[in-house]
Design brief:
The complex is a heterodimer of chains A (286) and B (236).
Chain A (H helix, E strand, L loop, with lengths): L1 H49 L18 E2 L11 E6 L16 H18 L3 E4 L9 H9 L4 E8 L8 E6 L15 E2 L8 H18 L8 E3 L2 H4 L5 E6 L7 H5 L2 H15 L14
Parallel strand pairs in A: 2-3, 2-4, 4-8, 5-7
Antiparallel strand pairs in A: 1-3, 5-8
Chain B lengths: L1 H28 L5 H10 L9 E9 L7 E9 L4 H14 L15 E6 L4 E6 L2 H4 L5 H18 L5 E6 L17 E2 L2 H10 L10 E2 L10 H4 L2 H9 L1
Parallel strand pairs in B: 4-5
Antiparallel strand pairs in B: 1-2, 3-4, 5-6
The chains are: A alpha/beta (286), B alpha+beta (236).
Chain lengths: 286, 236
């Protein structure tokens, strides 16, 4: 009787041991599987975080503006290399609207493509603030330019008014001076980020306007100043180019202007290039 | 019995129909007066003040050249000597527009709701929503609208040094999508410069500081910009 009981206990113990070994093997296998999965995922992600594509400038990543578009261009040289191109308005904001159904937001997006090609032909890397019918905020657009080093900002517009066939360049009007102390730290107030760049903006604006005046009779000879919201928060030489106007009866009248406008902007930015100097770049400090 | 009742109703309806038609016509003539129209009537009564002496006021409307420039037009108006009332009078005349509607600078349905003058010479003009919603969108048209207001005030109300524009009592970001209305516009440059140098800049306290993206490669404007800008930066 006692032997029978012992045999039964042994069997139970053996059965329990076999089961616990099975559980342990299963647990080990499960842990190993989790480890392999996690390590596999992290190794798959590693190249994108550590090695950005060659076409993206290293300083251009901006987490707040996922719609940034970068052009394929050769390795940047020191100095001015990047043009942030801003087709104004978009989304629910159509901008100026002509009686013939012309919408500023749609036209500037198409114009931007031609301006971009002309700039890339001059060796500039182009970043667009929008590529589709969307409307980033003024600050988001400025942030894309402010994240760059060696960039200028060009905002594209088509007006409701003005003599058709003329093009005007605007720079921000004088901003109230910032109080001392803060600037000594090297920080620029966001709401007046344009203030330190006004002189360079005027210079860039005059170069572009000069090129436009040659091509489009009736356009002013030099850039004009206006309190433009988009330019105020941009920490780079910044201009707005406005073509007249959506009031034309035929859309083709506007389309005909675009190659000349694109060429004038590209030439103007190229002419401005020697005036724009990044500290520490070889030979170029003025 | 029922047929008789129906016949009676038809006869009464036939007799009442011409009276009803006449009443509908009378009602159609009385168009509902909008809130803004009522305001306009109230505010425009300020322009015509027969007790004030008539003086030559200079108002700035668009020029015939249609190139975005403004032309001064002299208009004889009974203007008050009190600056706030005087500002309201000239702005209402500006809003009323020139003889040629093509030369308007401000939307025809815009209304000046209120005008205030702060002790430092800053004028605050509060316009109705139509000022922002009806203005032709564009840098040129918006800039011309603001220029016509500031130049008209500068020519007629010397006490005003700067101008802040509100839309229906609120600060808005832009006038029509381009022109910045978060700040104030200079009306009298010399007086505005004197006032700004005498008072600390209040806006700085709420400023967000922008760090250059890469301190090593950032543009050092203090060292490398031309002398005139360096002087400007030393002043600030």
């Amino acid at each position: 009787m006692l032997l029978k009981v012992r045999n039964r206990d042994d069997k139970q113990r053996r059965w329990m041991m076999q089961n616990s070994i099975g559980y342990a093997c299963f647990a080990l296998f499960f842990c190993a599987a989790i480890f392999l999965t996690v390590s596999g995922q992290s190794s798959a992600q590693a190249p994108t975080t550590q090695n950005p594509p060659a076409s993206v400038a290293p300083q251009s990543a901006n987490p707040q503006t996922p719609n940034a578009v970068f052009s394929d261009s050769p390795r940047p040289r020191p100095g001015l290399n990047i043009v942030v191109l801003d087709p104004a308005h978009g989304g629910t904001d159509t901008g100026a609207r002509g009686t013939g159904g012309i919408r500023e937001s749609e036209i500037v997006l198409q114009f931007a493509l031609q301006v971009r090609r002309a700039l890339e032909a001059q060796g500039f890397q182009v970043i667009q603030t929008r590529m589709a019918n969307e409307n980033p905020s003024f600050d988001d657009r400025s942030a894309m330019a402010n994240a760059q080093v060696g960039a200028v900002f060009v905002s594209l517009h088509v007006s409701s008014t003005g003599r058709p066939g003329t093009v005007r360049v605007y720079v921000n009007s004088d901003l109230p001076p910032t109080s001392g102390g803060r600037e000594a730290s090297g920080l620029i107030p966001w709401d007046r980020a344009q203030a330190p760049f006004l002189f360079l903006s005027h210079k860039l604006g005059d170069f572009v306007q000069g090129n436009l005046a040659v091509r489009f009779r009736g356009s002013p000879g030099s850039a004009q100043a206006a309190a433009i919201r988009q330019l105020r928060t941009t920490a780079a030489p910044a201009i707005a180019v406005e073509i007249s106007s959506v009031s034309v009866n035929d859309r083709l009248d506007l389309d005909r202007l675009v190659p000349g406008v694109a060429e004038a902007i590209a030439r103007g930015v190229t002419d401005f290039r020697p005036s724009y100097v990044v500290a520490g770049s070889p030979g170029g400090l003025r | 019995m029922v047929l008789g009742g129906l016949l009676g109703a038809v006869i009464i309806a036939g007799l009442y129909f011409p009276i009803l038609k006449q009443r509908v016509k009378q009602t159609a003539k009385l168009q509902p007066q909008s809130e803004e129209q009522a305001r306009r009537e109230l505010t425009q009564s300020l322009t015509a003040n027969p007790t004030e002496a008539r003086v030559n006021a200079k108002l700035f409307w668009a020029s015939n050249a249609h190139d975005g420039s403004l032309t001064p037009v002299t208009v004889e108006l009974p203007l008050s000597n009190e600056p706030v009332l005087r500002a309201k009078q000239v702005l209402n005349t500006l809003l009323a527009g020139p003889a040629d509607p093509e030369l308007r600078t401000l939307p025809p349905d815009a209304v000046l709701l209120a005008f205030y003058l702060l002790p430092d010479g800053t004028g605050i003009a509060d316009f109705s929503e139509a000022m922002a919603s009806s203005i032709p969108s564009g840098i040129e048209s918006e800039q011309r609208a603001v220029d016509s207001i500031t130049r008209t005030l500068a020519a007629n109300v010397p006490q005003i040094t700067r101008l802040k524009i509100l839309i229906h009592g609120q600060e808005v970001e832009t006038l029509g999508g381009h022109l910045d209305l978060t700040g104030s516009f200079v009306v009298n440059p010399r007086a505005a410069q004197a006032a700004s140098s005498a008072q600390p800049d209040l806006l700085t306290s709420s400023s967000i500081l922008l760090e250059p993206p890469s301190p090593g490669a950032a543009i050092d404007t203090r060292e490398h910009l031309p002398a005139n800008l360096r002087e400007y930066r030393q002043q600030i």
